[in-house]
Amino acid sequence: MAARTTSRSSRPASGASWDEVALAPVVLVHGAEHVLVERAVQRLRALAREAQPELEVVDVEASTYQSGMLAVETSPSLFAEHRLVLVRGAEALTDALITDVLAYVTAPAADVWLVVEHRGGQRGKKLLDGLRAAGVPVAACEPIKKDADKASFVSAEFRRGGRRVEAGAVRALVEALGTDLRELASACDQLMADTTGTVTEATVGTYYGGRVEATGFRVADAAVAGERAQAVALLRHAIATGVDPVPIVAVLALKLRQLAKVAAMRGRGGASASELGLAPWQVDRARKDLQRWTPEGLAAAIIAVADADAEVKGQGRDPVFAVERAVLRICAATRG
């Protein structure tokens, strides 16, 4: 393998998303979303092993690091083996690690990949600033909040596992488990372990259809479609099985906000899904749903949900009645 070098001149670090970061002599994996940190490290390890099947992997704990340890782990190997040295937990580093890593980055070894893992926080800022100033590639692993990014995460999980997944299944997983990224990752792993072939929306429904988020979205979908009987039946079943009215109202509000975002952009030449903070399938679904809505009807529905939100959070006497009335008002606001 050709020797790899890193320029010693000071320059801005190049950034990459957690699922696109490439190997380099030194890579910083940084962010507060621990699941993404783990995935970025796994990606780099896989890329290194693909390049060098006989790769030796060395873990170094930042919290117990002592001066000179990095020099030992990156010194020439007796058998000329390539190594991936992973510094774990640099958010709890010692001063000696800062000194040694910043010295190392000026002249990295030709047969070593060094990955520094930092899971957020202010500690270790000197190290982070020094690595960025040296132009070290950074894998960004910040928490993801947009549904579009969560959908991308799910798709990446199935690609990582070598499995195909339907767009509807991705949507259903995000709707059911999107509030917790680690739980979302575990669900992907479970589906890949328990099933064969393409993962479908029906498969996801079998495993996770009873989740609060999924139940709320089914109620919202029926209400926005003007399907009064189905929306009320789904709502009453959810309440009977213990679902609190508060998250259902929250999902109704989310659904209507998505419609309002897409409706507002229709007369302005349109906007991409990423600009709206939505997944492509959410934009497509909203455009389809909007065929049943007038601006006046959408405004009335938003007011109905705002009223219900106040009532289920203490301003009303009967939260169940409040959310059912909101569902009926949403259905009545559609074109039919």
Helix content: 55-70%
Label the structural class: alpha/beta
Question: Which whole number gives the mean pLDDT?
Answer: 86
Order of helices and strands: EEHEHEHEHEHHHHHHHHHHH
With helices defined by DSSP (H or I, 4 residues minimum), what is the helix count? 15
Low-confidence stretches: 1-12
Categorize the overall geometry: elongated
> How large a portion of the residues is in β-strands, by DSSP E?
5-15%
CA-atom Rg in angstroms: 25 Å
Q: Distance N terminus to C terminus?
A: 67 Å
Biggest sheet record: 6 strands, parallel
Strand order, largest beta sheet? 1-6-2-5-4-3
Total number of beta strands: 6
What would you note in describing this structure?
Helix 3 (95-104) packs parallel to helix 4 (125-133) and helix 11 (245-266) packs parallel to helix 15 (319-333). The protein has 336 residues and is an alpha/beta fold. The protein contains 15 helices and 6 strands. The chain has helices at 34-51, 69-73, 95-104, 125-133, 147-160, 167-177, 181-194, 201-208, 212-224, 228-240, 245-266, 273-276, 280-289, 295-315, 319-333, and strands spanning 15-17, 26-30, 56-61, 83-88, 112-118, 138-140. Strands 1-6-2-5-4-3 form a 6-stranded parallel β-sheet, with helices on both faces. The radius of gyration is 25 Å and the shape is elongated. 56% of the residues lie in helices and 9% in strands. The longest helix is centred in the last third of the chain and has 22 residues, at 245-266.
Quick tags:
336 residues; alpha/beta; six-stranded parallel β-sheet; 15 helices; 6 strands; disordered N terminus
